Amino acid sequence: MRVGTRASKLARLQTQTVVDKLQAHFPNEKIEVVPVTTGGDKVVDRPIAELGFRGVFVKELEEALLLNQVDLVVHSLKDLPTDMLPGLALPAVLEREDPRDILATRDGKTFAELKPNAVVATSSRRRAAQLAHLRKDISFIDIRGNIETRLRKLDESYCDATLLAYAGLLRLGLTERISQVFATDELTPAAGQGALAVECRSDDQSTIDKLSLIDQAMVRVEVLCERAFLNELGGGCSVPIGATAKCDGQQLLLTGCIAALDGSQVYRASRQGTTAEPKLLGRLLAEQMMDTGARRVIEDLRLTVPNRISPP
After folding, report:
1. 107 is catalytic
2. Residue 4 forms beta bridges with which residues?
3. For residue range 35-81, what is the model confidence (pLDDT) as tens digits?
4. CA distance 226 to 190
């Protein structure tokens, strides 16, 4: 069994989690990890939003699947576009860490404590747009590279602070670098953030059957709901839209956020449904928010040419 993955330390750790789970079910299966360099990894001198192609961190992995160079690939689920390519399936969603976002600073200051006109580096338009709403004086600049590279740039005074996914720092054992964990009503996470996705060919029933054994039902319910919200808004991962769902028994609570790029408007709302119909809940909340004012923001975003701040 050949498993495709991005080559970064975090991607390899995430992939090893999947490999270990498969090996526990199939101890005699030989599993080979195949590193694949994606477009988002190759081009590091421009904001992600300027690259202009679908799934900048998944495209080459999916191509390797379709060309039968690997049998399955492991993604950070938030990187996976909501429009699945024909011929591919998503049989396993698992291992969700805390989906929230964090702030890292050199001196431990929180976002509210940053000096006036501080510079915050992020590769995410979603993060920048929501936080710009909280502080008008902050400047946001793009930053590229893996988590370790971004923290090194922070230490070298490239910026006063940087924004990252909590899940990545948890998996890398770098939680001592966290200055603040944002509440989801301050900074709503990306759809699927913190979860792993395992993709394979839709006609490879043997691999689908194996992967179904490691699929985690409640994680799948949460991300199906979040991705339905995102898909209904037509955002893909290129506009400042956040979504986070939480299962509580048979109940499912979804919080969605739609923000103007400059932070001038932020719409945030929650809606409750059941775990039996996660996609319906996602669609209903999207429609509700569009009907209560967010439609103009979405229409303006679709006309915007991405520039300095990148997805997701």
Report:
1. no
2. 34, 73
3. 998 655 544 444 445 444 445 678 899 999 999 999 999 999 998 98
4. 9
| Alpha carbon distance 283, 45 (integer Å) | 36
| Secondary element (H or E) of residue 280 | helix 278-289
Residues in the chain, overall count = 312
What domains sit in the chain, N to C, each tagged with a CATH number? 101-181 (3.40.190.10)
Which of these is catalytic: 41, 71, 79, 142? 79
Confidence (pTM): 0.90
pLDDT in tens, 5-44: 999 999 999 999 999 999 999 999 999 999 998 655 544 4
Query: Cα separations (Å) of 154 from 44, 100, 174, 186?
Result: 17, 20, 14, 23
Kind plus residue range of the DSSP H or E element containing 295 = helix 295-302
Q: What are phi and psi of 4, to 5 degrees?
A: -85, 145
Six-digit token pair at 212?
Answer: 């179904």
